[in-house]
Amino acid sequence: MAKKGVLLVNLGTPDSPSTADVRKYLNEFLMDGRVIDVNPALRTVLVKGIIVPFRAPKSAKLYQAIWDKETGSPLLHYSLLQQAALQQRLGDGYVVELAMRYQSPSIEAALQRLKDALISDIQVIPLFPQYASASTGSVQEKVMYLVKDWQTIPTISFLNSFHDNELMIETFADNAQRHNPDSYDHILFSFHGLPQRQLKKCDHTHSYCLQADGCCDALNDTNKLCYSAQSHDTARLIAAKMNLPGEKYTVCFQSRLGSDPWVQPYTSEVIAQLAKDGKKRLLVFCPAFVSDCLETVFEVTHEYGDEFKALGGEHVQLVESLNAEPKWIEALAGMVS
Fold this sequence. Notes:
Elements: E1 4-12, H1 19-30, H2 40-66, H3 74-90, E2 94-102, H4 107-116, E3 121-126, H5 133-147, E4 155-158, H6 166-177, E5 186-192, H7 196-201, H8 227-241, E6 249-254, H9 267-276, E7 281-285, H10 294-310, E8 315-318, H11 326-336
Parallel strand pairs: 1-2, 1-3, 3-4, 5-6, 5-7, 7-8
């Protein structure tokens, strides 16, 4: 019988922490029209003329700080573990491939391996719990572009999001228990940021997004595909699993770029206010990521940790991502079946 194909796709990582490889990665990443969604000519000037020349050397130093001599990039390391564990869990009836949207291993090479394996169909799982055009949408577009010239195109399905997957929620909650959450003054759910304009573009009614305070606080038929609304829902579900009252946690967004307004509140501003309020110990989830990476290991632990201490706080503790936790692998298997 023909085997079924599963393609796991994460964001991407440089091939090494050298400035040259980081520059190559940033160029491919930021030149994606779904990531920086402006006029192509302006995007080229911004990315190649301003952002990458200045950002690459700085980012290279950050990658060097988290790069393991044996396993390399944390994001690639954990993604490979997820691929291997899911392959073992699904068995011989499936071929599980891993790709990165940017750099290696490439989506094109992974699709070719599935094609060579004579699979009967392909299920694409972008490893982003909450849907965003700049992440999940970009993966979907890339896959469709690559297969459009195949003479025989198998059945291909895409997972849109899994922001409310029960086993994923349980895994995050379980990981938090390692750190005795009751010993912290406040808990943050810090998601990757997006420009507000990208949220508005996804509002097909053109009359709901960011028109009122709290428009993302609860899912409804209008905002059910909104990145911010799905992020709030993920946080609410993890908080409910941990029996956290609303005043005990805050949803916020990190990693903004440029001067345009991004999804708010910003994590850095929330941390500053918590320090001002006398909070000393913060526990931080990053539920937009299924693998620990630069944005979790360095940005939260070091950058936000240092900021918080400089403002009078004592400790910022990262809750580990899903990585290769067995319950998370079961969640992935459930998405496949």
